[in-house]
Structures are given as structure tokens and as C-alpha cells.
Specification:
Blueprint lengths: L2 H18 L22 H24 L7 H9 L2 H8 L1 H19 L4 H30 L16 H20 L3 H26 L1 H20 L4 H32 L1
Keywords: Signal
């Protein structure tokens, strides 16, 4: 197994576990169908859909090459939202899900802004790569499901009950922020950041202040200034992803502190 595949495997497992405790409201494209809880039975279908998407996305770029003035770029989004594979990757591996949206909009904006066919083809290539990476992630997730390593994707809200679980939920929500930014849903992404701060981070803030006040101050600035500015500043999803990755590192530190504090408390009693 290559280093890249090992990293992908570990990431998929972590995110699959996280999403098992997610909420239906976290997904913007309607109720998630039951097929996401039986991935193995649908791998063939997902594979066919990836081939179909490659063909359809390619046809839009082909149309642009033939007649740059009359291309329905909205069809790119319609094709993506039509397939079941959409929700399969959305529930299993958000980073690649965001990359797919980024690729879709790379083609869409390239066409609408009159970029060269070569530039648009380059975006198409990146999108195709993201689609196949996503299929690989779903295949890995299907194996974890088969082995019973992850629970079912929940369709009703399950609140985190411990401080470390709250941090896990915050990290999952921040992944969603990147995805929503990739979808160019700026207001949705900004609202999600605000709600995550109020509904999750403030719940563990008091305990964290006692452990590392500077870390709390940094995260407060990230939630209230740095990340919202990245979302609304027009610098693209990579800027948002960069801020989120930095926050994830800080949140990992916060989680470790909370776990250790909980362990110390139990040892005392």
C-alpha cells in the first residue's frame, strides 16, 4: 500500500466515523438515501456514475470548444446532483467532495469568463482526478462498513456528550464549511461557522481556558475573524481550506488537552 493510499485510508476511516454521528441538517442537498449505509452493494453503480459524469462534464467542455457563446454551464451542477455517488462521497470524505465542487466551478467559471479551451481542459482534468479519488475513498469506506468499523449515517440529530466529542463535531463542521465554500454557498458557510462557534465551541471554551488560554484566544479569532474573512474575501476555496487546516491542528491540540484533563479527573476520583 502506497503512502498516499495509507493516508487516504486513515482519513476516510476518521471521517466515516465522524459522519456516523452527524445530522441530516448538515447536508444541503436533501435527505441522504439509505444507500450510503450499504456502500458495498452500490460500488458498481457508483463506478458507472463516475464514467457517466466524466462523459457529461467532457461534453460541456467539448461544446465550449465548438461554440464558446452557447454553453449551458448550469448543466455541470445538475449532472453532479443527479447521481447517488454525490451523497456517497458527501457522507464519507468531505475534502474530496469539496475538491469535486471546486473542479465543477473551475470549469463553470472558466467558460463563463471566456478562458482558453486549454485552461478549461486543465480544470476538467483536475475534476476527473477528484472523481476517481472520491470513488477510491468510497470503496475504502465500504470495506470499513463491511467490517463493522463504522456506524450507520444518522438521519436524526445526535448531540455530542463529552468535550472531546464536541471537538470532533467542530472539526466535522469545519470540513462542511470548506465544502459549502467550494459550492460557492458563501452565506451558508458563514452561518455554519457562526453556529459552530455558538453551539459547539462556546460549550468547551470554559474548560479549555483553564488548560490553554492562548489557544482559546487563537481559536476565537479564527472563528470570528480569520475564517469568515477567508470565506467572504473572494480568495477562493483554497484560502478557506488553508484556514480550516490551521484550525484543525489547533483543535487537535485542544482535544488532547481535554482528554488528558478528563483522564486526570477520573484518576483523582
Amino acid at each position: 500500500m502506497t503512502t498516499t493510499l495509507k493516508k487516504l485510508s486513515a482519513s476516510v476511516l476518521v471521517l466515516a466515523v465522524t459522519f456516523s454521528f452527524g445530522t441530516s441538517s448538515a447536508f444541503a442537498n436533501g435527505v441522504i438515501s439509505e444507500h450510503v449505509n450499504n456502500l458495498q452493494a452500490h460500488i458498481g453503480e457508483y463506478t458507472e456514475e463516475v464514467h457517466w459524469l466524466e462523459e457529461k462534464f467532457g461534453s460541456v467542455v467539448d461544446a465550449y470548444e465548438k461554440d464558446s457563446k452557447n454553453v449551458d454551464t448550469d448543466a455541470l451542477i445538475e449532472y453532479w446532483e443527479e447521481v447517488d455517488f454525490h451523497s456517497a462521497i458527501e457522507t464519507q470524505y468531505v475534502p474530496v467532495y469539496a475538491s469535486i465542487w471546486q473542479g465543477i466551478y473551475g470549469i463553470k467559471m472558466g467558460i463563463e469568463n471566456g478562458k482558453s479551451v486549454e485552461d478549461v481542459r486543465a480544470e476538467q482534468t483536475k475534476l476527473n482526478q477528484a472523481l476517481w479519488q472520491a470513488l477510491g475513498a468510497v470503496k475504502l469506506a465500504s470495506q470499513y462498513q463491511k467490517q463493522g468499523l463504522v456506524a450507520k449515517v444518522q438521519t436524526t440529530e445526535v448531540e455530542p456528550t463529552t468535550a472531546p466529542e464536541v471537538i470532533d463535531d467542530i472539526k466535522k463542521r469545519l470540513d462542511r464549511v470548506v465544502a459549502k465554500s467550494a459550492e460557492q454557498l458563501t452565506e451558508v458557510a458563514t452561518t455554519l461557522v457562526h453556529d459552530t462557534y455558538l453551539q459547539r465551541f462556546e460549550g468547551v471554551e470554559g474548560a479549555l481556558i483553564e488548560l490553554d488560554a492562548d489557544l482559546v484566544e487563537d481559536l476565537e479569532k479564527d472563528f470570528n475573524v480569520t475564517l469568515p474573512q477567508a470565506i467572504t474575501g473572494g480568495k477562493g476555496v483554497e484560502a478557506v481550506r488553508g484556514v480550516v487546516e490551521t484550525m484543525q491542528t489547533k483543535l487537535d491540540r485542544a482535544r488532547s488537552l481535554l482528554v488528558e484533563a478528563e483522564k486526570s479527573r477520573k484518576d483523582v476520583f
